[in-house]
Structure formats: structure tokens, C-alpha cells
Design a protein that fits this description.
250 residues; Deoxyribonuclease I, Chain A; 5-stranded antiparallel sheet; 3 helices
Length: 250
């Protein structure tokens, strides 16, 4: 969920559109009961403003409990230079046990216990490398981080999800590097769950026919993915990516 597409500027029309997006996002998060976790990118705590109660701080990041429900939690970090862009993991009822951040690569890694079983969610919004202004150097660094995360957590399910700003199909100048690096993720024992979707229906971008968003899981849990779909039935200009819904059995 993000609101940057056609929402920049401070004109009256733009601000009204932003407020409409914020209202719809609140309604979705506060009222939708059909999820255990939501991973969001380019998302701001400001969109929830008066609906939240800050009850604990961890380093520079906030853990938020939504005032409307005692069983909903939002975990948020803002690795970007823009105040309204951050990463969130929204949990319906599960409290985290451990967390790791990497602001330069823009990911948040949270461990949870669900029905006495451990699970890790790594929420990614890959950023350009500052020196080269390219994505693949950052993806290369992320691959190394993924290996480290997996080494210490491979006894339980690890979900690697989000906007990688990388595609092995879109003919960019970085495509060869992306193909190599995605194969490295596979070598580390992660499976791309979106491969379960018909190749002609894998686009996650509203304006372009290619995939930037992925769901990976460590290979021993690949058969635990019960369902996955890219919600390209949603037609709106409030977001520029289609959401990915999936169900997993732990």
C-alpha cells in the first residue's frame, strides 16, 4: 500500500486525494478480519494518526497498538529520508519476539510465535545503491543478509516478502544481474511462491506488465503454501502495485 502515485504536491486537489487514500487505508486495516499479517511498503504512521496509541518504543522505531482493538499491532520502521515512507508489518493478534532492521537496504525482520510455532517475516522495499544509483548492488547485499537470517532461523518458516524493485523478466539494463541474484536466493534454499501463479498473471504493477513484488519461503516449507494470488482484480489509482494474498499452514 502506498500513495505516492499521482499524489505528490500540496495543491488542494492532491491533499484531498491523499486524505481519501488515508481514509480507505484505515478502513481496510481496522475493519478487515481476514488476515493474520499484512506487510506494507512506502507507508506512513501518519495515515493512522488519531487511531493509534504508542505504547512502547524500540530504538528509533515504534511499536504501535491500534486503539480500536487490543489484538491488532503495527510494527513500523522508517529507513527512508522521506518522513511519510516506511515499512510496516501489521499483526492481527501476534506479538513479536525479536526484530532486526537494515535501514540502508530497507528491510525489517520480525520473529513471531504462532500457536507455539516460530515464524519469521522479512518485509523488503529494496532501495538503490547510493554510489551507483542502481538496484542490483543493493540486491546483492540483501542476498548476503538473507543467508545470515536463514542460518539462524532455518528450523522454522521464513517468509521473505515485499517490493524488490527488481524483475527477472522486465528488459532493464540490470536484468542479467537480477537473474543471477534471484538464482542465488534459490541456492540459499528459498522458493519463489509466486511461481505457483500462471506466468501471464504475475504482473504486480498497475502501469507495467512485469513483476516487482515477491513472496519467498524456505524450501522445506514450500508445500505449506496453501494459496497465493496477485490481486490484479483491484482497479484503483490509490496504489501502484497490486497486493499479493497468500495462505500458509505452519
Amino acid at each position: 500500500m502506498n500513495f505516492w502515485k499521482q499524489r505528490r504536491g500540496n495543491s488542494e486537489k492532491t491533499l484531498l486525494e491523499k486524505n481519501d487514500w488515508i481514509k480507505l487505508s484505515k478502513e481496510y486495516i481496522l475493519n478487515d478480519n481476514n488476515f493474520n499479517f499484512i506487510a506494507l511498503q512506502e507507508t506512513s504512521l501518519n495515515m493512522l494518526n488519531d487511531e493509534i496509541i504508542i505504547f512502547k518504543g524500540i530504538e528509533k522505531d515504534n511499536i504501535i497498538r491500534m486503539g480500536i482493538s487490543d489484538s491488532q499491532y503495527i510494527y513500523h520502521t522508517n529507513p527512508y529520508k522521506y518522513p511519510d515512507w516506511g515499512l510496516m508489518i501489521i499483526s492481527k493478534k501476534y506479538y513479536f519476539t525479536n526484530c532486526v532492521y537494515n535501514n540502508s537496504l530497507a528491510y525489517m525482520c520480525y520473529d513471531f510465535i504462532i500457536d507455539n510455532k516460530n515464524m519469521t517475516i522479512v518485509n523488503v522495499h529494496l532501495q538503490k545503491d547510493y554510489k551507483t544509483c542502481l538496484y542490483h548492488p543493493s540486491l546483492k547485499k540483501l542476498v548476503c543478509e538473507i543467508e545470515t537470517i536463514k542460518e539462524s532461523r532455518n528450523t522454522h518458516a521464513i517468509l521473505l516478502v515485499g517490493d524488490f524493485n527488481a524483475s527477472s523478466e522486465y528488459p532493464s539494463t540490470e536484468i542479467d544481474d537480477f537473474i543471477i541474484l534471484f538464482s542465488e536466493i534459490n541456492k540459499f534454499g528459498f522458493v519463489d511462491c509466486t511461481k505457483m501463479i500462471d506466468i501471464n498473471k504475475r504482473s504486480t504493477m498497475l502501469d507495467y506488465q512485469y513483476q516487482n513484488d515477491y513472496v519467498f519461503i524456505n524450501s522445506q516449507y514450500k508445500d505449506n503454501i496453501l494459496e497465493i494470488k496477485i490481486r490484479n482484480d483491484i482497479k484503483t489509482d490509490l496504489i501502484d502495485h497490486y497486493p499479493i494474498d497468500f495462505k500458509i499452514k505452519l
